[in-house]
Every structure is written in structure tokens, then in C-alpha cells.
Amino acid sequence: GLLLNVMPCVWPVIPIIVMRIWNQAGESKGRSIGLGLAFCSGILLFFAAIAVLNIVLILGFDTVFQWGDLLRNTVFLAAMTLLMVVLALFMFGVFAIGIPASITSKAGTGSGYAGSVGMGFLAALLATPCSFAILAAAVAWAQTQTLPVATFTLMLIGVGMAVPYLVLILTPGLLNRLPKPGGWMERIKQGLGFLLLLVAVKLLSALPGEGRISVLYYVVILSFCVWMWGGWVSYATARGRKWLIRGIALLVAVAAGWVILPAQAEAIDWLDYDADVIAEAVGQNKPVLIKFTADWCSSCSIVEKFVYMRKDIGELIKQKGVLVFKGDTTLAGAPATVDLARIYKEPGVPVSVLLLPGGGEEKLRGLIGKNDLKEVLNSLPDVLE
């Protein structure tokens, strides 16, 4: 809440607001305090509105989510990661959020106690072009908390924003000691953007390997689309051209999300590569499928997305009673890396090896399709036969 006051949209107008309240109060110290409290209550009213919105969103799901449960949901983790990245781009100035002129023109028109309340509400509202990312992150966090904790925290942010105004109204001599507006405000704003990126990295690290890589790829494309949205147009851009560019940016973001982001949880429960367990299964005439992959392998991610994450592939593997192992060759000294070259005589990934009952093997190399894998799996008997 205190940090909201040093945003470039807020800091330069603080002296103006304080002096306006003092001018309205005239020589009356008591009236200046009253008007100051009314102004601060207007700020709190704005945050009360945000708290009410948060309550409505929570009750709209008919439950209060628990933080731990949400962090176990990969869709939530991916969405929060992307949200933090977009909010960081906002703090870096890649795009902006404006307030209609019809609202900004009323910012300094209030008089009396009711006018001071309205002026406080508008002051908090007019801060959103700079504080949007902080408020959005706070509301996203509040959605995971109980109603009392969420409401108290959001109102506490309002208190933090209002307190400096009250202090300056009570002791206006401090106005002369305030630092002059300048580039330091923008640096603070951008610094908070890096903090949001740290939060995004923390959330990203909790995603499974394949999902993490997919989200990371999408972060780059989404950032490009946000840059298109905010950086390729200006206030002087013709309306038609502006919405054409933004429409293309939105289309690219949606299409890339559909292609790159995991559409569902993994359809297959992979076992970690273990040569001894694999040898034992082969000795018992059980079919074994080994997917050799690596975190740095783009083709592996494509195969994972369009083949192994398909529900019908997962069901077919269960139907045939195939034991599935993930051979992670990300590191040079990993057992799967060594065995890929020494035992299976393969130079690189992606490659899938199906060890057949009774001996023999089938290899699927490179960018395979779902039908390639189905063909070799359908050659196996069903587990009930």
C-alpha cells in the first residue's frame, strides 16, 4: 500500500491533493483534519470495492479454495505463471492501462466532506494505470485465502496508501521535504516488475518437466503478443489499424496457447528409467515402452504434446498392458543417456523403443505421429487375452 504512493501516476499529485484539502479547510485545523479523514476514507472505499469483488469471485465458485490445493493444480500454476509475466511486462511499460477522460476530469472537482470522499476514491482509481499489476497480483493471491484474511489484507493495502496523505495533511511542512518526481519512481516500478518475474519463476518450477517447458515456450510468445498489443500502436494510431494489430496479437496468443500449452494432465503414468526393472519385465515376457527424451529437446516436447498426452494413446497402453518408462537423457552421465548409446545403439532423441514379449524390438525415431505409435501397439495382444 505504501509503495502505491511512489508510482509515477501518484507521487506528483500528492502535494496537489494535500494543498487542495488545506485550501478548502481555510484556517480551521479541525476542518482540515476532517477533510483529510474523509479523503482517506474515500481511498478505503475504493479498496473495499475491490474486497467485495474478491468476495463475489470466491462465492461464485461456491467455495473458498485452499492455497495448497491450488498449488497442486497444474492448470492453476501455469495460469498464475503467465499472469505474473504479463503483470511484470506492465510494470516494464510494455503496455498501459488508461482511465477514461470523463473520469479523470472529475478528479479535482470535489468539495466538502462528500467531495473529499469522492476525491479519495478517484485518487485510488486514477492510480490504477501504474498500480494495476500490484493490485491484480494481490487479488489473485486473495482468491486463495479465506474471506476474513483476504478482506483484511486488501483493506490493509488501502490503509497503506491512505496513511501518507493523512500524515501530510496533519503536518503540511513535510511537503517541502518530499523528493522531487523523477526517474527514480519509474525505476521502483520496474524493479517491482522483476519481483513479479521471480514469483513467476517460483510458480514455473513447481510444474512437471514437460509442462514446464511448454509454458516457458508460451511465455516468450505471449510476451511478444503483449508487446504487439501495447508497443505497436499509440494514441495517434487509427482505430481500424489499432484493432487490426491487437486482433492479430490476440489471435496469435490464442492459437499458440492451443498448440503449445498442455491441454490436459499426462495420460500416462511414466516410471523412471531403471535398467534392472526393465530387464526383469522383459524376462517375464511383458511389453516395455521406453520414451527417451531430454529437457532441452524441442522435438521431444512436440512428440509429448501430440502423441503421449493423448487420452486414446494412454488407454491403448493400458489395454495392452505395456510397462512405460521415461528415459531422461538431459544429462550426459544419466543412466538413460549411457544405455541409449550402449544398449539401444541410438545417437540421439527423441526415440521410443518398444521391447516386445518373447524378444525383438520396435523403434520410433524423431517426430512420430499418433498413428505410428498406435500401429506398433496394436500389434500386441490385449492384456486380457
Q: What do these coordinates show?
A:
With about 375 residues, the protein is of the alpha/beta class. It has helices at about 15-25, 30-60, 65-70, 75-90, 100-105, 110-125, 130-140, 145-170, 185-205, 210-230, 240-260, 275-285, 300-310, 310-320, 335-340, 370-380; strands spanning about 270, 290-295, 325-330, 350-355, 360-365. It has 16 helices and five strands. The chain has a five-stranded mixed beta sheet with strand order 1-3-2-4-5, with helices on both faces. A hairpin with a 5-residue loop joins β4 (about 350-355) and β5. It is elongated.
Oligomer description: single chain
Shape: elongated
User: Alpha-carbon distance between the termini?
Assistant: 67 Å
Bin the helical content: 55-70%
> How would a textbook summarize the main sheet?
5 strands, mixed
Mean pLDDT: 84
Strand content: 5-15%
Q: Write the element-wise H/E pattern from the N-terminal end onward.
A: HHHHHHHHHHHEHEHHEHEEH
Low-confidence stretches: none
Number of helices: 16
